[in-house]
Design goal:
Layout (H helix, E strand, L loop, with lengths): L22 H12 L4 H12 L16 H13 L6 H6 L5 H9 L6 H13 L1
Pfam families: Whib
Subcellular location: Cytoplasm
Keywords: 4Fe-4S, Disulfide bond, DNA-binding, Iron, Iron-sulfur, Metal-binding, Transcription, Transcription regulation
């Protein structure tokens, strides 16, 4: 089974890039993330794993965001109700037909990964 990790732009780079010690290194990591086709599921995973962790306890660059930026994104999503049922969210990651339906239930425009999954699922049916 192929997962989104195999399509990640970071997979062929030194993992240390995502834990920068200076601004130039952070800029290199962000540039790689900016062109990544799986940035959305990467951010979802980071937010899910980090959960309600404090800003200062979040390390590295994920999906092009620093720890503080991810904490802000988490707070915004939590306030909008997206983290009301994290267990259900974990079972339907973006890029699946279930997540496509979740987007629709929440009145959101489905992301590109979910639209592709829905199209592929309909074609296979």
């Amino acid at each position: 089974m192929v997962t989104w990790h195999h399509a990640a732009a970071c997979r062929d780079h030194d993992p240390e890039i995502w834990f920068p010690s200076d601004g130039d290194a952070a800029d290199r990591a962000r540039a790689i993330c900016a062109a990544c086709p799986v940035k959305a599921p990467c951010l979802q995973l980071a937010l899910l794993v980090e959960g309600n962790t404090a800003r200062d306890s979040r390390y590295g660059i994920f999906a092009g965001l620093t720890g503080r930026q991810r904490r802000y994104a988490y707070e915004q999503l939590r306030e909008s109700g997206h983290f009301a049922t994290p267990h259900n969210w974990r079972t339907a990651p973006c890029g699946t037909r279930a997540a496509y339906r979740r987007h629709q239930r929440h009145g959101e425009t489905p992301c590109a990964a979910c639209r592709r999954a829905e199209t592929a699922g309909r074609a296979a049916s």
